């Protein structure tokens, strides 16, 4: 007689976020309460890869930014060991999903599928997958070396507006289509020996699945290759990125709805860590879409993520026929067949704040905040713009720009206090102006939902609240992308046809941390107008 299996009375969900600087994992119960967390920081815990902020910058060309997929694999080995040491019954995990930094691409070498299918549970993943990649350095979202391929793609499909109409975005350097195009044109041998191309999200998912995982509709919208209406690869975009003989469609595999259960966990994880063989693997998605799912945005809410990148995203009522003027439309990860989200992304986020903290505040957030708080809102009319890397929006080169209240350019501000406030006000004015261009409007009902590493800093959030003239709320965790993965697991495992809201409900519990000051609207409405003019002058000079 077959031994009866114990009934699983305590189903748990395991969510990951393979982001720029770290790999984070979170375990929640069915009520979506966080029980355990584990993380691996690439710079600190994997120093042999010599990353700075989780990435490798090319010494000769600052536009080329990559990370080694084998580092991410090693991070998975470490985080799994950390999870094992948490000493909870791993076999009660019923679902795994995750998020990845968007746009980055992983190139699996011919034969890698077999490697994934036959992983030996007695060995580490990184020992077995050391030769699984045909491109050893994966281009990541911070890369901006593909302008010529962007131009080529836009031209091939009939212009930037046409590309935006099809894919939800004009061509952007970090988007995967142009990255693949660069590899196709400059590393043909590597391209030809590639069996499969994954996004960072579907790459991580493939390891848990023990087979190639499909690219989900939402993260797939960040490639300039997916038709966001039909959710199929657009033949013209594929050809424009490569050629009609490149076999790209087969290398990408079929895109899958973000809500899909793709299978059960690989035997490797069952044998090595004690997962139940019934544990389901749900499609992984992008970090911003995953945060979007964790935040359950209402129609008047504005999400602001302050991680390595800063992003602003909104839920989109309907699909604008021509795409957005700037920014991106992605399939909504909660109902990826029908709905959409809008987003705008800024490259110079936390790492630029860290640079100014180093130069002005002795690397201390405490001193940084004291400096910030010792200057008045509006900063005596001074305005600053700080770019360590080529910015995405606005498209400007690296460099700092400082202006006094007359709009004259300065080499230096008069004090560190003014410098720190100029940085934070300048960043948020830019977030506001460009968010308005993708349809962001604040009203009395508006709430800003903040997430990402810097959302733990209430003094920075106060400036955000003032600049947007709306209250700011945060979740218990500053990392919503991995939590969003757990929400998505619960939805994907629920009865077919049930909506995300029916299953997850408004689980996102936010607390208010700041209200805008009364004088903020007047100060920042004026400043936003000045900022827009100054920013334009910098774009023209870039
Ligand atoms: P990512 O997911 O993109 O790797 P995170 O969302 O984890 O990034 O954010 C990491 C960033 O959070 C760090 O670069 C750091 O500058 C920032 N951060 C952490 N704590 C604070 C703080 N108290 N104030 C401002 N920024 C902070
Ligand atoms: C979004 C983007 C970044 C990455 C890393 O378009 O490029 O936000 O997802 O977080």
TrEMBL record:
It catalyses: D-xylulose + ATP = D-xylulose 5-phosphate + ADP + H(+). It is an enzyme of class 2 (transferase). Gene3D superfamilies: 3.30.420.40. InterPro entries: ATPase_NBD (IPR043129), Carb_kinase_FGGY (IPR000577), D-XK_euk (IPR042024), FGGY_C (IPR018485), FGGY_N (IPR018484). Signal peptide: none annotated. Transmembrane segments: none annotated. Keywords: ATP-binding, Carbohydrate metabolism, Kinase, Nucleotide-binding, Transferase, Xylose metabolism. Residues 303-487 form the Carbohydrate kinase FGGY C-terminal domain. Residues 140-290 form the Carbohydrate kinase FGGY N-terminal domain. Its EC number is 2.7.1.17. Belongs to the FGGY kinase family. Phosphorylates D-xylulose to produce D-xylulose 5-phosphate, a molecule that may play an important role in the regulation of glucose metabolism and lipogenesis. This is Xylulose kinase. It comes from Orchesella dallaii.
């Amino acid at each position: 007689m077959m031994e009866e299996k114990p009934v699983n009375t305590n189903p748990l969900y395991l969510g990951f976020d393979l982001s720029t600087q770290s790999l984070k994992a979170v375990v929640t119960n069915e009520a979506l309460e966080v029980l355990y967390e584990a993380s691996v920081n690439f710079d600190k815990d994997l120093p042999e890869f010599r990353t700075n902020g989780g990435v490798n910058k090319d010494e000769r060309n600052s536009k080329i930014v990559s990370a080694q997929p084998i580092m991410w694999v090693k991070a998975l080995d470490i985080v799994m060991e950390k999870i094992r040491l948490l000493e909870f019954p791993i076999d009660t995990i019923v679902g795994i999903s995750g998020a990845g930094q968007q746009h980055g691409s992983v190139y699996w070498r011919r034969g890698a599928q077999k490697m994934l299918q036959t992983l030996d549970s007695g060995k580490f993943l990184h020992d077995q997958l050391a030769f699984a990649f045909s491109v050893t350095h994966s281009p990541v979202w911070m890369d901006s070396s593909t302008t010529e391929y962007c131009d080529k793609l836009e031209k091939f499909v009939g212009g930037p507006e046409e590309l935006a109409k099809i894919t939800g975005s004009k061509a952007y350097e970090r988007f995967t289509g142009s990255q693949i195009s660069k590899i196709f044109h400059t590393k043909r041998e590597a391209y030809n020996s590639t069996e499969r191309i994954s996004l960072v999200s579907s790459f991580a998912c493939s390891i848990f699945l023990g087979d190639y995982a499909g690219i989900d509709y939402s993260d797939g919208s960040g490639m300039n290759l997916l038709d966001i209406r039909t959710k199929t690869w657009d033949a013209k975009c594929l050809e424009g990125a490569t050629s009609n003989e490149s076999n790209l469609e087969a290398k990408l595999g079929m895109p899958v709805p973000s809500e899909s259960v793709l299978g059960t966990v690989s035997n490797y994880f069952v044998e090595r860590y004690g997962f139940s063989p019934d544990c389901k693997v749900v499609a992984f998605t992008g970090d911003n879409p995953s945060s979007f799912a964790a935040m359950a945005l209402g129609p008047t809410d504005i999400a602001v993520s302050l991680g390595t990148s800063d992003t602003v995203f909104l839920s989109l009522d309907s699909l604008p026929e021509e795409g957005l003027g700037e920014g991106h439309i992605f399939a909504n990860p909660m109902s990826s067949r029908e709905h959409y989200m809008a987003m705008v992304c800024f490259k110079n986020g936390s790492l630029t704040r860290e640079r100014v903290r180093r130069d002005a505040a002795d690397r201390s957030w405490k001193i940084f905040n004291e400096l910030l708080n010792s200057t008045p809102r509006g900063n005596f009319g001074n305005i600053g713009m700080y770019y360590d890397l080529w910015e995405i929006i606005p498209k400007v080169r690296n460099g700092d720009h400082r202006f006094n209240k007359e709009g004259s350019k300065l080499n230096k501000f008069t004090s560190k206090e003014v410098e720190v406030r100029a940085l934070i006000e300048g960043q948020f004015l830019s977030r506001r102006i460009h968010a308005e261009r993708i349809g962001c409007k604040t009203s009395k009902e508006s709430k800003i939902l903040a997430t990402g590493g810097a959302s733990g800093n209430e003094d920075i959030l106060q400036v955000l609240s003032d600049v947007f003239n709306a209250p700011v709320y945060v979740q218990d965790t500053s990392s919503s992308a991995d939590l969003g993965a757990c929400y998505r697991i619960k939805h994907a495992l629920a009865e077919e046809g049930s909506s995300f809201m029916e299953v997850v409900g408004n689980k996102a519990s936010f607390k208010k941390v700041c209200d805008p000051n009364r004088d903020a609207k007047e100060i920042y409405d004026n400043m936003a107008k000045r900022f827009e003019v100054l920013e334009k002058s910098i774009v023209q000079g870039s």
